[in-house]
UniProtKB/TrEMBL annotation:
Domain of life of the source: Bacteria
The protein's name in its UniProt record: AraC family transcriptional regulator
Gene3D superfamilies on file: Homeodomain-like
Xref: PROSITE patterns: HTH_ARAC_FAMILY_2
Domain HTH araC/xylS-type residues, every copy: 183-283
Transcription regulation is among the record's keywords: yes
C-alpha cells in the first residue's frame, strides 16, 4: 500500500513480487514504475514491453497495467498525489512545485507516454538509476533531511525524463520526414502551453522557419486539425485533469493556462464538453483510494 505523505507531493512504494495478482485498473494519479531487479513483461492498455533491471515506465491515470513476472521482481513506484497537482503557489517554500506541475503535464500527456522505457540516452539512464536508487534508500532509512533529498532527486529525474522525451524520436522516422516534423511541433506546443506568446502563429512560424500560411496548412495536413484547435484541445485536457484531481478553482485554472478569464474558459469548456466545468468536476471527481 502506498504511504500517504501528508506534506509531500508524492507517494513512494517499494515492493517485490513473484506474481502479479490482477490488472491494476485506472488510478487516481500519475506513476513512475521503476524496475530495480527481475524480468518479465509490462502491459499497459494494449501494449506489451519486456522489462529488466533499470527500466522505467510511465503510467497515466486512465491507464490499465499489469506485469507478467518471469523472474522475482523488485519495483520502485513513485505516485504523484493530488497535492502534487494542487500545489500551494503562495507558499514560498514550495515555489518549485509550480515548475513541477508543468513538467508533469508535458511528460504524462506527451505522445511518448506509451512508448515503453523512455530513456534513449545511456548516460541519462545511468543517472536516473542512481537517482532512483538514492530515492529508495532515503525512503527506507529516513535519514536527516531525507524529504528534501527525495524531493530534489525527483525534480532532477523529471528534468531528465523531459529532456529524453524531447530528444528521442522513433529511430525509423527520419529528420526530413513530415512525421518527424509534426512530432517536433507537437512536442513544442505541449512544452510551451503555459507561454501563450510563444504559441502565436508568427512566433511558431519563425521558430520552425516557415511562413504562417504554410505552417498552418502543413500542420493540418498531417494531423487533420488546425494548430489552434490542437492547442485548445490540449489545454482542455489539462483542464480536465485539474478538475478531476485538484481543488483548483476554475478562475485559477483559467489564469494558469492563459485563458482570458473564468467566463471564457467556462463557455469554451461547455462548447467542447457539453457541460460546465462545475458539473464536469462533480461527475468525474476522483477520490483517493488505497492500493
Amino acid at each position: 500500500m502506498f504511504n500517504k505523505l501528508l506534506h509531500e507531493p508524492y507517494d513512494i512504494v517499494l515492493e517485490e513480487k513473484d506474481s502479479w495478482e490482477n490488472t491494476r485498473h485506472p488510478q487516481t494519479s500519475f506513476q513512475l514504475v521503476y524496475v530495480r531487479e527481475g524480468k518479465g513483461h509490462h502491459h499497459i492498455n494494449d501494449n506489451q514491453y519486456d522489462y529488466c533491471p533499470g527500466k522505467l515506465f510511465l503510467v497515466a491515470p486512465e491507464d490499465r497495467y499489469h506485469c507478467d513476472i518471469t523472474e522475482h521482481t523488485a519495483f520502485t513506484i513513485i505516485r504523484f498525489t493530488q497535492l502534487f497537482i494542487t500545489q500551494l503557489k503562495d507558499d514560498a517554500e514550495r515555489l518549485e512545485l509550480c515548475d513541477w506541475i508543468k513538467k508533469t503535464d508535458y511528460i504524462f500527456n506527451n505522445y511518448h507516454a506509451k512508448a515503453g522505457c523512455i530513456f534513449r540516452d545511456a548516460a541519462d539512464g545511468a543517472m536516473a538509476q542512481a537517482l532512483l536508487s538514492g530515492i529508495a534508500r532515503e525512503h527506507q532509512q529516513h535519514g536527516k533531511g531525507y524529504q528534501l533529498i527525495i524531493r530534489q532527486s525527483i525534480s532532477i529525474l523529471l528534468n531528465l525524463i523531459a529532456r529524453n522525451l524531447l530528444m528521442s524520436e522513433n529511430p525509423d522516422v527520419q529528420e526530413n520526414s513530415g512525421q518527424f516534423s509534426i512530432l517536433r511541433m507537437i512536442s513544442y506546443l505541449q512544452e510551451h502551453v503555459y507561454q501563450p506568446e510563444m504559441l502565436r502563429m508568427p512566433a511558431l512560424a519563425a521558430h520552425f522557419n516557415m511562413s504562417v500560411h504554410y505552417l498552418g496548412e502543413y500542420f493540418k495536413k498531417h494531423t487533420g486539425e488546425s494548430i489552434q484547435d490542437y492547442i485548445i484541445g490540449y489545454k482542455l485536457k489539462l483542464v480536465d485533469i485539474r478538475l478531476c484531481y485538484s481543488n483548483m478553482r476554475v478562475r485559477e485554472i483559467a489564469q494558469e493556462l492563459g485563458f482570458t478569464d473564468e467566463s471564457y474558459l467556462s463557455r469554451l469548456f461547455k462548447k467542447y464538453r457539453g457541460i460546465t466545468p462545475g458539473i464536469y468536476r462533480k461527475m468525474n471527481r476522483k477520490q483517493e483510494t488505497p492500493h
